[in-house]
Every structure is written in structure tokens, then in C-alpha cells.
């Protein structure tokens, strides 16, 4: 959408204003995240950045809820049930993933593919989706399932983490403002 394009460009400008540059990028297998990354890289002047795309960073699969707006889903299954599927940690919608399932898919990829480069000093940019990023944030910030469900993630708002040698968070800067 036009709003998504503005948010992606704004995110890139926020990173540039912090004088950040990157050695490598990771994104999902979905066009939306790839387009977001492309727009951000244009803003920071790094359009040739080596980028890895992987479905492990894809958005949570909403299964039978995919393609439905919230009102249609509520009519079909009821407001309470749809809220449980959308906001619980471990209850997936029919044919879909819970946040716990998304974490089980995203975390191994982070540990095996992203984290080793970060620990070697690679400045790494990850452009993904609300729930796959939520899974990574849960691990980085050591949040419980209850805490991560309450954590709001603004779209187009980069969060910059610096890690210690043991992979714990040394500092965090939220560029939402």
C-alpha cells in the first residue's frame, strides 16, 4: 500500500539518520518483506547489499483465516474464537500456525544462519513480518509468552540491537519515534 511504502522509506531514513550501514540482509520469502527491504536499502544507499531470502522468516500462517477480514472471520467462527486464535501464544487457527509454531520455525534459522554472522561482527539487517519478528524479539529480549503477546510492534519502526559475545542484548534502540 502507499502507507506501507511510506513506512518502509521512513524506516530506511531512520536507519540512515543513525549513520547505520550493513554488511548483509535477511528477509522472508514473501514479496511484501522483500519490497520493504528494497525500499529501505534505497534510502540508506545500499541497494547492492548481499541478501538472503528464506521462508523461515515468513509471516505466521493464518491457515483458514488467510484472506478473510476480521469481520468475516468473526461471522464464521465467532468473535471470542477469532480473538483466541489471533492473540494466544499456542492456539493455532485451523490449518495455520500459532505464535509458538512461528517461533519454532524462525528461531532455528536465526540461531543457525543469522546469529553466527552477527557474532562475527557482521552488521545485519532483518526485514520480515510482525509475527516472525515478534518471535525473534521474544528470544532477544527474553520475554515470556504472556509478555510477547502484549508487546506492540509498530510497522516501519526499526529496532537496533547490539549483542554481547554470548549473544545477549548489550543495547537496544527503538527508532519508532
Automatic annotation (TrEMBL):
Keyword Amino-acid biosynthesis: no
Annotated site location: Transition state stabilizer: 129
GO annotation, biological process: glycolytic process
Residues annotated for substrate binding in this entry: 32, 59-62, 70, 86-87, 130-131
Top-level class of the enzyme under EC nomenclature: isomerase
InterPro entries xrefs: His_Pase_superF_clade-1, His_PPase_superfam, Phosphogly_mut1
GO molecular function, one term: phosphoglycerate mutase activity
Highest rank taxon of the organism: Eukaryota
Protein keywords: Glycolysis, Isomerase
Entry EC number(s): 5.4.2.11
Short name of any one Pfam family annotated for the protein: His_Phos_1
Family: Belongs to the phosphoglycerate mutase family. BPG-dependent PGAM subfamily.
Protein name: phosphoglycerate mutase (2,3-diphosphoglycerate-dependent)
Organism: Chiloscyllium punctatum (Brownbanded bambooshark)
Amino acid at each position: 500500500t502507499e502507507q506501507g511504502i511510506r513506512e518502509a522509506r521512513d524506516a530506511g531514513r531512520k536507519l540512515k539518520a543513525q549513520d547505520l550501514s550493513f554488511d548483509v540482509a535477511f528477509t522472508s520469502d514473501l514479496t511484501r518483506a522483500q519490497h520493504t527491504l528494497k525500499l529501505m536499502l534505497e534510502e540508506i544507499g545500499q541497494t547492492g547489499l548481499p541478501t538472503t531470502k528464506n521462508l523461515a522468516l515468513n509471516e505466521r500462517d493464518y491457515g483458514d483465516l488467510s484472506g478473510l477480514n476480521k469481520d468475516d472471520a468473526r461471522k464464521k467462527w465467532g468473535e471470542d474464537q477469532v480473538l483466541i486464535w489471533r492473540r494466544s501464544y499456542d492456539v493455532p487457527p485451523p490449518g495455520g500456525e500459532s505464535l509458538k509454531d512461528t517461533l519454532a520455525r524462525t528461531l532455528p534459522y536465526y540461531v543457525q544462519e543469522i546469529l553466527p554472522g552477527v557474532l562475527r561482527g557482521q552488521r545485519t539487517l532483518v526485514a520480515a513480518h510482525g509475527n516472525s519478528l515478534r518471535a525473534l524479539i521474544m528470544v532477544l529480549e527474553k520475554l515470556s509468552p504472556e509478555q510477547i503477546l502484549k508487546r506492540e510492534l509498530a510497522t516501519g519502526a526499526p529496532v537496533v540491537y547490539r549483542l554481547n559475545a554470548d549473544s545477549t542484548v548489550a543495547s537496544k534502540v527503538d527508532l519508532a519515534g
